[in-house]
Amino acid sequence: MIIVGGSSSKDLAKELARILDCQYIQALSTRFPDGECYTRIDSEPFNDDVVIVQNTYPDSNLIEMFLLQNAVKNLGAKSITLVIPYFGYARQDRIFKPGEPESAKVISELLDKSCDRVITIDIHKEDVLRYFSCKTKDLKAAESIADYFKGKGIDIVMSPDIGAAGRAKDVGTRMGVDYDHLEKTRLSGTEVRIQPANADCTGKNVLIVDDIIATGGTIIAATEQLKAAGAKSVTVACTHGVFVNNAIERLTGSSLDGVLCCNTLENTVSHISVANIIAKELRE
Prior knowledge:
With 284 residues, the protein is an alpha/beta fold.
């Protein structure tokens, strides 16, 4: 097996190759003066199974993925597996208004043209994978998050809402601690109360888990109210740290005691690695 790392996932691809004890090749990716992507894989013909590790977000990384697929195919890969840590366009999986495209379907069908297997991590809507004709698997980062926080004094795991309660349950169960979800109650036109649905967080170290953090506004508001209600500390961990509009700075400058994400999107707080769960799936 050969691991090819795209520009969006260099560290994750390297770690994956190290765990699997297989050859690693970093693709050369640059930009022409007009912004177009240039990609090259400096290698002899493969004649081996190849794994490409690359995000499809933002658009520039998506184009790079298409080019990497073609390059790997031309080098004679016996099979092509796409490891897509963060799958862009997964949110638009249906037509909500007339004239809209089915973005998830379009992207999936284009990727499907040159691959034999697809592995994603906490894809926003798992049903999107039905658009692929090849084998697919969405892995859950709960195992990686739980392993990271075991023994770090967390008393309870919370999700930001009931929709993500299953994630809190999964992480909490793996850690052997309590879990709950937060509920919003509108008190007036401008005031909202955010509190645990059932648990008492007084004097406890709270871990909030989510799949994606974009702006972080909800997390910051929840943290302030949890602290006001007596929580000893509040840490947040997500799978995909999209972090738009200076979200990292806003989160780290808030009353949060810790901000972390998985290395599906590599940034300054992506200290939780999903390499082990990907390696396990590739071995199987």
